[in-house]
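thread from #wetlab-drylab

HS: before we spend reagent money on co-crystallization trials with nicotinamide-adenine-dinucleotide, can we at least see a predicted complex? here's what I'd submit
DV: go for it
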Amino acid sequence: MELRGKPVADQITAQVKQDVQALQEKGVWPKLTIIRVGEKPDDLSYERVACSRMQQCGILTEEIALAADCSQETFIAALQEKNNDPSVHGILLLRPLPPALSGMEEMLAPQKDVDCATATALGRMFAEDPGAFAPCTAQAVMEMLAYYEVPLRGMDVTVIGASLVVGKPLSELLTTADATVTTCHLQTRDVAKHTRQADIVISAAGCPGLIQPDMLRRGVVVIDVGINVRADGSICGDANFLSCEQVASKITPVPGGVGSVTTSVLAKHVVQAAWQNSFPTK
Ligand code: NAD
């Protein structure tokens, strides 16, 4: 069974649209500001897709493009202005920032940090704060698993990838959902040993051809977060889809899988931030 992202994204988007309408009836127009430093093609394409999803949901967007060599002072001034602007509910920093701005993401106001860029937001997520925003891609994987009714409680899950953006927070979300999680990374001695014992294998390594069918137990669920560009410009995941599909009970395609859910999660977080920032409960 192929687990496609579109129905999941459609379901989240439909709910977000209703929430946007409810906010507008209370006089709040949810708004996302995207801050990009430089012109990296990956950033430009994600920004385009994110803006189109926000538009589909009725969320206002504002794009701020800073020069690739902008100073720390310029970056902080742009960020502080949006931190202090009450009409902005969420801020998305396209990451990674250039080395000269490394660590500057910590200046982002935690209540507007809709993609979990700051240590404060990560800490809130680890502390299971219900108002916290997990990184959108990690949350998109959780939304996929929930939509396709993949049970997590007591399951053995192997996550390949331990970045702060995807792998580590995802391992934490899965642990919170009562799975038993093994996290692999580049220094893992034998990745296949860990994937073969898993009920669910999630790859977020960015390594095409990493997951082969002989690394999988029959009936496993495979979630492929990897987005890799082949020499001919086409996109593929980390799993060898056609051969892994023969072994897995469920598998996500790339493209058309997790990637299509990420921006709908971002929209959901903007709306949640708009509620929390406009109508604080305490
Ligand atoms: P990253 O480079 O920051 O981290 C990769 C992680 O995978 C590291 O922990 C590394 O140790 C591990 N790894 C790499 N190769 C490995 C191997 N051969 N064996 C075991 N571990 C290995 O990357 P990232 O930002 O976490 O992104 C991971 C992948 O997910 C990329 O392909 C990226 O394009 C994709 N991604 C997709 C979305 C989306 O679907 N919307 C969003 C973000 C990232």
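DV: DSSP finds nine helices and ten strands in the chain.
HS: ok that's useful, forwarding to the group
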